[in-house]
Write a structure and sequence with these properties.
This protein has 715 residues and is α+β, with helices and mostly antiparallel strands. The chain folds into 4 domains: 117 residues, no CATH class; 228 residues, Immunoglobulin-like, CATH 2.60.40; 208 residues; 92 residues, no CATH class. It starts with a helix and ends in a 7-residue tail after the last helix.
Length: 715
């Protein structure tokens, strides 16, 4: 491929990766727009609305979107603070009512794990015998959850669920202000769009802050903020209020000094970091678009070659060079050497009378005889070839078939732990590595100055950037959702920097002197040898010419095509048959010389972002029957084959297995511990379970946060 086609192909690949990546992670963060990756899934929240009244009333509207029928039974909204209809001595949320979709059963499961069902607008405790669905709700729901249950499972479509709560939050107050930080969600389904409305007819709100950082606007007697909330990110509203709010909100006030300065300090820092991260996202996205242009600039500055006119076909050898050097420098990449350089060198040594190659058609044998004077060669690579042949020759004859069988026997012995066989095999491997893979690549420096370092630098920089963002993402993704977009974009940059690593090292480097002309001539010669219509025009009697074509064609990777053309044209050169056997014996021996792997043994009320009262968010639960029973069966075996229930859960957690909720529930309910080390197969079971029921498509969506809350029951 010509240099111009290489750079064009590279630019198309890099630009396509960038465009596709930006499209899939598209949408400007925190504006009213689709979030293509975050919002995809079988269930998400199309829109979320929260009307917040300063008397403590919270009216929420969830519009859930389900894209697959007959998978989900429950749509819910959970809290990370107590949910109770009775007054408690600590901050809590009081459920008032639920507006369910038609055909669903509204319910709550309070802080004490009692299930309440709504009937005629009143919540009451139902005994298990009163309804066949209470036991299902009791089993599936977790404490501090309100939701709706569909016995026959939801069809695909849109479902609106309204919740009415009375908040009894913590308030931090001094003589001038009260502080309220309300966390509406932190672990939840993706919210494609949300709108927060704080009703303030008495002008009790002095300042209002949202997390993520949004610009809240005043319209009439209300404060309004809207945006999108990616999955499992913080959605919080923090307010600095007049002290009169204590008389209308039934909360839990406590005295705190200097409320105003603490609120301003915490949110100034949060908003500053949020804006900084948003800027980082925009810069990274700009880099995705600019990166192809950077490659063009590097190419024009360091890699663009002078123009030479070379015919498409060239029927003669451009330069009398060693075949292995032609393979190394002119075949593909100037620093890429393969086994064809070794095969071509053997053919060239035969042509020059240094060795004699013999083939046995009946037994498919290949022998190389070392002729007198073979020690006189001055080429270092050819010396290595001849030394290799001499090392494994019997007398002056190297038998390739016998050598292959010897390597196979050594490998068989090495698999049994024979140290002598392993050592001998490693010795053979190192010798063949030089002959068939590495050669002396420094020789290529005489012809070309490689430019792959520029691609390597960009790859390393982008990779380090991604790792740095990933570390921040792991700790702060809920508080700063911009990190999700930054992480995705940094991954795009890493992917964009991979294609420049795999193109020819000369693309961003430069050929020295006029060697680029010679490179083009070797390409034209290779094209000629690959074209039977062109090669058949030449004389069949000039065997010396055909010998050269076979040798250099092999070095260029098209020796098989030359050999086939010779066979069709009845050109008789005995050593041409050896090309059929060389890969069989030498290639097989090289692959078998790799030492076998060794056998191993196993044996709220805070200031700033994230400190708010509330938490949780909207979710949905799916439990297909077949997968449910298969999954639970695997999880039982996982528990039994572990030393304890807690060990099985530990393995499952670190293997991201959907066993977690079942294992936790089972261990928490019955408080048993298994101690049967039958086969230590918990890790395998966890893997199989994960394979059978991937978390996103078969079991749980948006419910992981609640699974971990039960881990404390095992202690």
């Amino acid at each position: 491929m010509s240099e111009s086609r290489q750079i064009i192909t590279l630019l198309i690949a890099v630009t396509s990766i960038g465009a596709a990546g930006l499209f899939l992670t598209g949408g400007t963060p925190y504006l009213k727009t689709d979030c293509l990756i975050e919002c995809y899934g079988s269930v998400y929240v199309e829109s979320y609305g929260a009307d917040i009244y300063l008397n403590g009333t919270l009216e929420e509207t969830f519009v859930y979107r389900i894209t697959e029928s007959d998978r989900y039974r429950m749509l819910y909204r959970d809290w990370k603070v107590p949910l109770s209809q009775e007054r408690l001595g600590e901050p809590y949320v009081e459920p008032i009512g639920i507006s369910p979709p038609q055909g669903t059963i509204p319910y709550i499961k309070d802080w004490s794990a009692k299930v309440w069902e709504e009937q005629d607008g009143v919540f009451s405790i139902r005994q298990l015998s009163n309804t066949e669905y209470t036991s299902d709700i009791d089993y599936l729901a977790v404490p501090n959850e309100a939701g709706v249950y569909m016995p026959e499972r939801f069809a695909a479509g849109t479902f609106r669920v309204g919740y009415l709560f009375k908040l009894h939050p913590p308030l931090e107050c001094d003589s001038e202000y009260c502080h309220l930080n309300l966390k509406l969600a932190d672990e939840h389904l993706p919210y494609k769009h949300f709108i927060l409305i704080v009703h303030d007819p008495d002008n009790l709100v002095s300042r209002i802050y949202t997390h993520p950082a949004l610009d809240a606007r005043r319209e009439g007697d209300a404060w309004i903020a809207e945006g999108v909330s990616p999955e499992n990110t913080l959605l919080e509203v923090e307010m600095l209020l007049r002290p009169q709010v204590k008389s209308i909100m039934d909360g839990f006030p406590r005295d705190v000094q200097d409320v105003e300065s603490k609120t301003l300090s915490a949110n100034s820092e949060y908003y500053l970091i949020s804006r900084l991260l948003s800027t980082v996202v925009y810069v990274l996205r700009a880099m995705v678009l600019v990166f192809p242009l950077m490659l063009v600039l590097i190419y024009y500055k360091y890699g663009r070659e002078k123009s030479f006119v070379v015919p498409k076909f060239l029927s003669y050898v451009p330069e009398r060079r060693k075949p292995w050097l032609v393979n190394l420098v002119f075949r593909k990449d100037p620093f890429d050497f393969d086994e064809n350089g070794f095969y071509a060198s053997l053919l060239d040594l035969h042509r020059r009378g240094v060795v004699k190659i013999e083939t046995d058609g009946k037994e498919e044998g290949l022998r190389v005889q070392l002729l007198k004077g073979y020690e006189g060669t001055k080429d270092e690579y050819e010396k290595d070839v001849l030394d290799f042949l001499k090392s494994f020759a019997v007398g002056d004859f190297f038998d390739a078939k016998a050598f292959k069988e010897q390597v196979e026997r050594l490998r068989e012995n090495a698999t049994t732990g024979n140290s002598a066989a392993v050592s001998r095999l490693s010795h053979i491997r190192s010798k063949m590595q030089v002959l068939m893979r590495s050669a002396d690549k420094s020789v290529a420096d005489e012809f070309v100055m490689g430019g792959r370092k520029y691609a390597a630098i960009s790859f390393v920089l982008f990779l380090l950037l991604s790792i740095a963002i990933l570390l921040l993402f792991a700790d702060y993704r809920q508080v700063y959702p911009q990190l999700s977009f930054a992480l995705f974009t940094s991954f795009i940059l890493v992917l964009q920097s991979i294609p420049p690593l795999v193109v020819s090292s000369a693309l961003f480097g430069s050929w020295k002197e006029d060697y680029y002309r010679e490179k083009l001539e070797w390409d034209a010669f290779k094209t000629f040898l690959s074209d039977f219509a062109s090669i058949q025009k030449y004389s069949h009697e000039d065997l010396k010419m055909w010998q050269e074509w076979l040798i250099y064609g092999t070095a260029l990777g098209v020796g098989d095509k030359v050999a086939k053309a010779m066979e069709k044209l009845n050109v008789s050169i005995p050593e041409a048959r050896s090309l059929n056997y060389m890969p069989v014996y030498f290639g097989r021996a090289y692959s078998m010389s790799s030492p076998p792997p060794s056998k191993g043994g196993g044996g709220g009320g805070g200031f700033g972002g994230g400190g708010g009262f509330g938490g949780g968010g909207g979710g949905g639960e799916v439990i297909p029957d077949t997968v449910f029973y298969l999954r639970n069966l695997f999880c039982i075996f996982s528990l039994v084959n572990s030393r304890s229930a807690s060990e099985a859960i530990h393995l499952a957690v670190f293997d991201s297995s959907p066993c977690i909720p079942f294992a936790v529930s089972l261990a928490a309910r019955f408080r048993f511990r298994f101690r049967f080390p039958i086969c230590r197969s918990a890790q395998l079971i966890a893997f199989l379970t994960k394979f059978l029921s991937s978390a996103d498509s078969l079991f749980i969506t948006g419910r992981n946060s609640k699974n971990f809350s039960s881990l404390a029951l095992l202690s």
